[in-house]
Amino acid sequence: MKSDTRKVLLITPSVVVAKGLESIFGDLGEFEVAGILPDVGHASESRLRNMEADVIIIDPTVFSYPDRKNGRSWLADNSNAAAVALQTTLTDDEILRQYDESISLFDAPTTIIRKLRTALEGRQETPKSEGEELSGREKEILVCVAKGMLNKEIADQFNISIYTVITHRKNITRKTGIKTVAGLTVYALLNNLIDVNSFE
User: Are 24 and 107 in contact (CB under 8 A)?
Assistant: First the structure.
């Protein structure tokens, strides 16, 4: 894989769609498929974390119907990559809005590339500002993340939406410059936000 290309993970049950996208990326050169998974069962948390993809293109139909509305938060729990919904069927706008961008089977190759760029630009973190400290709520969220809680669990604990949790997590990453759960855990320990004895 060339170092100047951006890595894409495809999660789609359609081999034809996956191979088509792979061919488009091969022709245009800016993106390259790092992996193809047929469903979220194969996209285990550790596998997603180890992929280090820049962009995840996911068909929302890989989630059960009730879980589709939380698809983006599931990805956010396991990867910092930009998430792009792949519309292979008629999909509710509310489901699509949770993703950084969406592409359709009817999009031209150049449109797909443009939308992937847009998703990546939207996900790029702004540099950490000197002296910018975490808010009280961000510290609470950070402690929960360090303890291994999922976005939904955090949302339920504080009676806030999953999208608010995701926003807090983005702000925590921007302010600390730390993108991994392990790194945030170390940060929380070093800043006395959690006690090492609180881990079993």
Answer: no
**Torsion 85-89-90-92 (CA) sign:** negative
Give the whole-angstrom CA distance, residue 51 versus residue 171. 23
CATH number of the domain enclosing 40: 3.40.50.2300
Nearest of 178, 183, 83, 175 to residue 126 by alpha carbon: 175
Is residue 194 included in any domain, yes or no? yes
Could you count the other beta carbons within 10 Å of the beta carbon of residue 184? 21
Predicted TM-score (pTM) of this structure: 0.62
Is residue 14 located within the same domain as residue 73?
yes
Tens digit of each residue's pLDDT (9 = 90 or more) over 173-192: 888 888 888 888 888 888 88
66 to 42, 105, 156, 157: CA distances (angstroms): 19, 23, 17, 21
Contact 7, 1 (CB under 8 A): yes
Assigned domain for 128 exists: no
Within 8 A by CB and 6+ apart from 191, the residues are none
pLDDT of residue 128: 45
pLDDT per position as a tens digit, 60-104: 999 888 888 888 877 877 777 889 999 998 888 888 888 889 999
More confidently predicted of 97 and 23: 23
* Dihedral over alpha carbons 121, 96, 156, 196 (to 10 degrees): -30
